Amino acid sequence: MSELVRLTQARFTKDPIFHKLKHQTSKTNFKSIFTNPINFSISHKETWAIIGNSQKTEFLKILSGSEFAQPATSRLYPASRANPQFSVELLRFVNNGSWGHGAHDSSGGFTHLSSRYEFFKDLEVDEKVDKFIADINYNSNHVFNAEKVQRLIEGLNLKGLEDKFITTLSNGQFRRARIAKALYRDAGLLLIDDPFLGLDPIATETVSKVLKEVARSESIPTTLGIGLRVQDTVPDWVEKVAIVDESGVAFQGPKYTLEKKLKELKDKHDEEQALLERRINEKLQLHLPETSNTGDKIIEMKGIDIKYRGVPALKNLHWEVKDGEKWHVRGRNGSGKTTLLSLITLDHPQSWNKKISVYGVQRATGKTNYFDTNKFIGFTSPELHAIFPKKLTVFQTISTGYIVGSYIPPSADQLSSEQVEKINNYLHIVELDHLKDSKFGEISVSNQKLVLLLRSLINDPKILILDESLSGMTDEDILKGKSLINQWNKGCVLVIGHVDHEVPKCDKYILMNDAKDGIYDIGDA
Ligand SMILES: Nc1ncnc2c1ncn2[C@@H]1O[C@H](COP(=O)(O)OP(=O)(O)OP(=O)(O)O)[C@@H](O)[C@H]1O
């Protein structure tokens, strides 16, 4: 079997300076990503799962050619000798700036859903789904293979969406479109980190089936590797597993030989989780003051209808949310969950609707405005994560939660000593004190999401909106986030999440699967 990538006693660094000093020995200040040298290879049509926490992403990056190998020849792509067209691609859904729809990066001005709902579409940057998959606008060398695009659209259940602008897709739809685009290119080796992230259970099966076909088909040249977290189920079509930790590749081999090891890891992981939970809860009890919920009506929607180009997304929605309630907003990808929540945050162009009231104040009556409403609201979402300025420190990032509608942090003299103390307390509770002065863009993606969660609640919002806030995080960070929200006792909380494990305890749910037909299943969770 021909080897696609081979690592031999390979060490890696992010430090470009070291790379330039070719004659340095390893005794110099070599900042190695992993403590041990790595021996590993992937051959044509093997199927690999790379399992671990944030280290699995580092390893996938290394396999895709990022980071600096030492010595340079310790990482080789033998397949490229035989085939100069051979390419390796890494697809990530959570990374610095491209989780969501690749919205505008900004430090103010745009809201997190600007690119989705802005009225005029810029045809230079936005495109229809089929063109996006075939990369037509950006890659003039690509021939538009309509049959292949159609096959991918059907396989990935994107039928009916071909004619939409890519920025108007829901998160789950967009992720499937990105997978289609990656598969369209027929890379020699395609690495996908967290391929099932943010997908509902049906979409997860759909994607897994397509990947299985690619993995098994000899007529498709692509070899597949996927990145999974320790807690994830390894799909049946994966044959080989590498378990990655700080040391490097700790174990590797056929999946069946490592099943016992994986189970041990999961058990150990569960024990550590139990200890962590106890620790966090003790700290929370010290820092979170008792408050009593009033049960007052906070949000009221009376017969909301939302249509996109005449196609209903929400029909005749009646919904009430009271102080003290925690809601799980459920439903398949594309069922209207983000649309619903964006009406509350005023990001949706149709938010100024008299049928929506917050604290009894009707919208569109001139009695409220964007800033007054958003003073009550804290939120995190994949779109916010994608556009959040990466250069702020962790402390500054959280401090922007005190300001409505801006990502410019308040200066030191604009923050009271209580506000500073509160940020420090929360960082302490989730055990991220040591990252306080680190740049947001330089900490792990999982930690970034946890920091954005702290930002969302720092100003004690009456409405806390958590749109896929804990998805794709390490289990440790999920537990920290969940513990915080489980104990949270101010106002109401609205949570979107597809994986139960990533959803804090809720007492109510609204199921949106048939929202476009005006049918909602609302009940006690
Ligand atoms: N600006 C828009 N223009 C046209 N269609 C849109 C727009 N925004 C959303 N839609 C469509 O409305 C439907 C609901 O989208 P929404 O993002 O609310 O779903 P969701 O339930 O949050 O999905 P996911 O779980 O994938 O995030 C989808 O079919 C989506 O393509």
From TrEMBL:
Residue ranges annotated for the ABC transporter domain, each copy included: 5-271, 299-525
PROSITE patterns: ABC_TRANSPORTER_2
Pfam families noted in UniProt: ABC_tran
Domain of life: Eukaryota
Keyword Mitochondrion: no
Coiled coil: 255-282
Listed InterPro entries: ABC_transporter-like_ATP-bd (IPR003439), Molybdenum_import_ModC (IPR050334), P-loop_NTPase (IPR027417)
Keywords, ordered alphabetically: Coiled coil
Protein's UniProt name: Unnamed protein product
Organism: Ambrosiozyma monospora
